[in-house]
Design a protein that fits this description.
The chain contains four helices and ten strands; from the N terminus they run H-E-E-H-E-E-E-E-E-E-H-E-H-E. By secondary structure, the protein is of the alpha+beta class. The radius of gyration is 41 Å and the shape is elongated. Strands 6-9-8-7-10 form a five-stranded antiparallel beta sheet. It has helices at residues 2-56, 81-84, 200-206, 223-232; strands at residues 60-66, 74-76, 85-91, 111-113, 128-129, 143-148, 165-172, 177-191, 213-218, 236-239. The protein has two domains: 60-132, Alpha-Beta Complex (Type Iii Antifreeze Protein Isoform Hplc 12), CATH 3.90.1210.10; 136-239, no CATH class. Strand 7 (165-172) and strand 8 form a beta hairpin. This is SAF domain-containing protein. The chain crosses the membrane at residues 32-50. Keywords: Membrane, Transmembrane, Transmembrane helix.
């Protein structure tokens, strides 16, 4: 009986042995597969992150920007371009088509700035002109003269400043009628009653003032008319085109 029992026990043990081996093989396979799955998941996540970064990458483009504040009607000589303009990189998506992308695109031989530009402002092609019907009339023979208005209301409430283009009117004493004397006159400087030049820096420190005296450019063929206007007195200034 004893031997029989032992034999039965051994037989059962042998019968169970293959099942244990199968479990070990299954465990080993699972142990190998799980790291591969985790590695695949990590690789997918990295791919998705890199793809998203690429999609969100900001594309830059070159643009010409002003390095300082530039007033309208300023003439920029060819050898002074680098003093006023530089290249900046900005987001391409926000750029209009009419922007200069290279300083070499600016007109050769000098040009006029048609409108006020602030420092770091992008330069639009409409801001630049090779010729200017007003400014081109001033030559080497251009003269400077001063004119004064009797009342600030006669100079657009005293708001006329350097760089403005004005039409000069005066009252003809023979008719007492207001007459246009000289058109499109360039204002070189504006002053208050105390003789202070009303520059941007001055008014930033002292507040806005009223301009009543003006230094203006006079082209050679305008000198006689301007002198007549001054002799008439009662001068009034209006912004050209207004």
């Amino acid at each position: 009986m004893y031997k029989k029992k032992n034999t039965e026990v051994d037989k059962k043990a042998k019968d169970k042995a293959p099942e244990k081996g199968k479990r070990n093989i299954g465990f080993t396979v699972k142990s190998l597969i799980i790291p591969f799955i985790l590695a695949a998941i990590v690789a997918c996540l990295i791919y998705l992150v890199m793809t998203n970064i690429t999609k969100n990458e900001v594309v830059k483009a070159h643009v010409v920007c002003a390095t300082k504040d530039i007033e309208a009607n300023t003439f920029i000589a060819e050898d002074k371009v680098d003093d006023y303009f530089e290249i900046k990189d900005v987001e391409k998506a926000i750029l209009p088509d009419c922007i200069y992308s290279d300083i070499k695109e600016l007109p050769d031989g000098g040009f006029y700035v048609e409108s006020d530009l602030s420092a770091r402002q992008m330069v639009n092609k409409d801001d630049i002109a090779e010729k200017d019907s007003v400014m081109d009339k001033y030559t080497a023979e251009t003269q400077m003269t001063s004119i004064k208005v009797n009342d600030f209301d006669n100079s657009v409430s005293g708001t006329i400043r350097h760089g403005d283009i004005v039409n000069v009117y005066a009252k003809d004493p023979s008719t007492n009628q207001l007459v246009l004397m000289v058109e499109n006159v360039y204002v070189e400087a504006a002053y208050d009653n105390s003789g202070n030049e009303l520059t941007k820096s001055y008014e930033a420190e002292n507040g806005t003032a009223t301009a009543v005296v003006f230094s203006v450019k006079v082209a050679p063929d305008e000198v006689d008319q301007m002198n007549t206007a001054i002799s008439y007195e009662g001068i009034q200034l209006y912004l050209a085109g207004k």
